[in-house]
Design goal:
The chain is an alpha/beta fold. It is built from eleven helices and seven strands. The chain has a seven-stranded mixed β-sheet with strand order 3-2-1-4-5-7-6, with helices on both faces. The longest helix has 18 residues. This is Trans-aconitate 2-methyltransferase.
């Protein structure tokens, strides 16, 4: 389902939240570190360079993404694995568990957080970031096209990926015995190129939609969506402004 090249088209914009998340992870010398939803592995390698004495794992459900990660530089190379993010079994308790823009693909976040916290060593940190842009014009336009009769029945099983409000995440994590820091940031990306917002969505949100539709219907879907996105996000001489909100949580296991 995933296309590493398409996903990486806006590499710099997708990296920014990772750095903002990692800046709040105050761990000096972890021995076991994992990146759930590692994608092409670029950011996982940054974890390995930050903590060179740690064993770093990069885990992704996409074999295409993991293959791309394994083709990266051998220097400071983490151990990359293909696995379901919800069920991955860490070889040892983790000092740092990071997930950047991946957990929204998984259901039942209350149960999921319980499983993730169980992977942490005492004092271990869970740090994750999820998109919170699901009510933005981009997603409303996608929903508008999804609802058209020629697409609706096929796409009914393809669920949207909403996330919880920050107080909900905090309540669950406090209940699991963690301290919690949580915040929300809206980035204003200025995207280059023609139909830039469509290109962004083709790297993420639209992947399961197009996979369900098949080649011919996918082309129809994209061409129907294209003018709607142009209307919602008019291109400017300097690029296309694209506001994008994300939610961040950094939680430390006390015992």
């Amino acid at each position: 389902m995933w296309d590493p090249a398409q996903y990486s088209r806006f590499r710099d914009e997708r990296k920014r939240p990772f750095f903002d998340l990692l800046a709040r992870v105050d761990v000096e010398s972890p021995t076991q570190v994992a990146d759930l939803g590692c994608g092409t592995g670029d950011l996982t390698r940054l974890l390995a360079r930050r903590w060179p004495s740690a064993q770093v794992y990069g885990v992704d459900a996409s074999s295409e993404m993991v293959e791309a990660a394994r083709r990266g530089p051998a220097l400071a190379s983490p151990r990359f694995e293909v696995a379901d993010l919800a069920d991955w079994r860490a070889p040892a308790l983790l000092d740092v568990l990071v997930s950047n823009a991946a957990l929204h693909w998984l259901p039942d976040h209350e149960a999921l957080l319980g499983r993730l916290v169980a992977k942490l060593a005492p004092g271990g940190v869970l740090a994750f970031q999820v998109p919170a842009n699901f009510e933005a014009p981009s997603h409303r336009r996608v929903d508008e096209v999804r609802a058209l009769p020629r697409f609706a029945s096929v796409l009914k099983p393809v669920r949207r990926r909403p996330v919880e409000a920050l107080p909900v995440y905090a309540s669950w994590l406090f209940g699991l015995g963690l301290t919690v820091e949580a915040w929300e940031t809206t980035y204003l990306h200025v995207l280059p190129g023609e139909d830039a917002v469509l290109a962004w969505l083709l790297g993420t949100t639209l992947r399961p939609v197009l996979a369900a539709l098949g080649p011919e219907a996918s082309r129809d879907f994209v061409e129907t969506l294209r003018p709607l996105l142009r209307e919602s996000y008019p291109a400017q001489p300097y690029g296309t402004p694209f506001p994008f909100t994300r939610r961040f949580v950094v939680a430390r296991r006390v015992t």
